[in-house]
Design a protein that fits this description.
Elements (H helix, E strand, L loop, with lengths): L39 E10 L6 E11 L8 E5 L6 H9 L9 E6 L2 E2 L7 E4 L11 H11 L4 H14 L15 H13 L5 E5 L7 H18 L2 E5 L3 H7 L2 E6 L4 E7 L7 H4 L3 H17 L1 H7 L1
Parallel strand pairs: 3-8, 3-9, 6-7, 7-8
Antiparallel strand pairs: 1-2, 1-4, 4-5, 9-10
The structure holds adenosine-5'-triphosphate (ATP) and magnesium ion.
């Protein structure tokens, strides 16, 4: 069917209209704009570290598209053996050196090439880096300060976030006085408070004990429902990937490649119930098997 906005003359073949040739042209360019811009596009992205005989191909030809779905952000879980390039993918998307720029290929965010870090992307890094001379509340509020938010408002909002990540009572502590898991929660709060359109989380729950990990997963689901951001979550936990992910990207090493994209079924049930369902357990087992097939030790056994 022709597009509804197309003028009827343009589809009437029997009229000669030499005085109005523009009506015979293909669909006007503004029709292309009706489709929302894709959130993220990777086109054949490769990354080498080092040169000559020292060169190491960390990523090879990574291509994928994250479409802008109406009223829903997508959560992409990235899994793969150590060294397969998961962090490199996130840091390229974040525009952070030395991973960015890629050696070849194209990275687009909302239709524009990535050239540097930006407020549309927030990264919770694998090696979370807090500012050592700032206390918890100041670390959480720091990004808002850079954005020029007034002091009273930023401290108010930072207090809310400290509460959300369960650190009430530690507001005045400095990073050196916190456990690894507490520091990680400060880093998570410091990124989430900025409400980035694209949230990049590199093993964000790795250092957390199981109880807090569960609470943080639930917090992420709640936030993601509220803010509809697109989330990339790197995890070594297959269960976490299936629990949180809409899609799971499976990567393999040597060189780092995206070998499979698995769509996770989302039955209409509370997420916490899913974990006990047969579909969930079967999906996790199948993913674990694929992960084992792609791990270097397995390749060693096969040879
Ligand atoms: N700054 C760097 N300089 C040189 N090589 C690097 C650098 N960063 C990563 N690499 C290499 O690129 C490859 C991919 O690394 P990356 O950190 O992305 O893997 P990963 O999948 O995140 O691993 P992990 O699960 O252990 O965090 C590895 O071989 C690594 O040694
Ligand atoms: Mg990593």
């Amino acid at each position: 069917m022709p597009p509804a906005t197309h003028p009827p003359e343009a589809t009437a073949p029997h009229h000669e209209k030499p005085d109005k040739p523009e009506l015979l042209l293909p669909a006007p360019p503004e029709q292309k704009l009706l489709r929302p811009l894709d959130v993220v596009t990777f086109k054949k992205v490769s990354k080498s570290f080092g040169t000559g005989s020292e060169a190491k191909l960390a990523l090879q030809d990574i291509s994928f598209t994250i479409e802008d779905l109406p009223n829903a952000g997508e959560l992409i879980a990235i899994v793969g053996p150590s060294g397969c390039g998961k962090s490199t993918v996130l840091r390229i998307l974040a525009g952070l050196k030395p991973h960015f720029p890629p050696t070849s290929g194209e990275v687009l965010v909302l239709g524009k090439p990535v050239t540097e870090p930006g407020p549309d992307r927030g990264l919770v890094d694998q090696k979370y880096s807090l500012l050592p001379h700032l206390n918890v509340i100041e670390n959480v509020a720091f990004g808002l300060k850079l954005r020029g938010t007034a002091r009273a408002e930023r401290l108010d909002r930072a207090s809310e976030w400290v509460k959300k990540v369960g650190l009430v009572g530690s507001e005045k502590k400095f990073p050196s006085e916190l456990s690894g898991g507490m520091q990680q929660r400060v880093a998570i709060a410091a990124t989430l408070i900025l409400q980035p359109r694209i949230l990049l989380m590199d093993e964000p729950f790795g250092a957390l004990d199981p109880g807090i990990r569960l609470r943080m997963q639930e917090l992420l689901i709640q936030l993601w429902n509220e803010q509809q951001s697109t989330v990339f979550l790197v995890t070594h936990s297959v269960e976490e990937a299936v629990y949180l992910g809409d899609r799971v990207f499976l990567m393999a090493p040597n060189p780092g490649r995206l070998v499979e994209i698995l769509k996770v079924p989302r039955p209409n049930e509370p997420p916490e119930e899913s974990r006990r369902k047969p579909w969930f357990i079967n999906f996790c087992q199948a993913l674990l098997r694929r992960l084992e097939e792609e791990s270097p030790a397995q390749h060693g056994v096969k040879v």
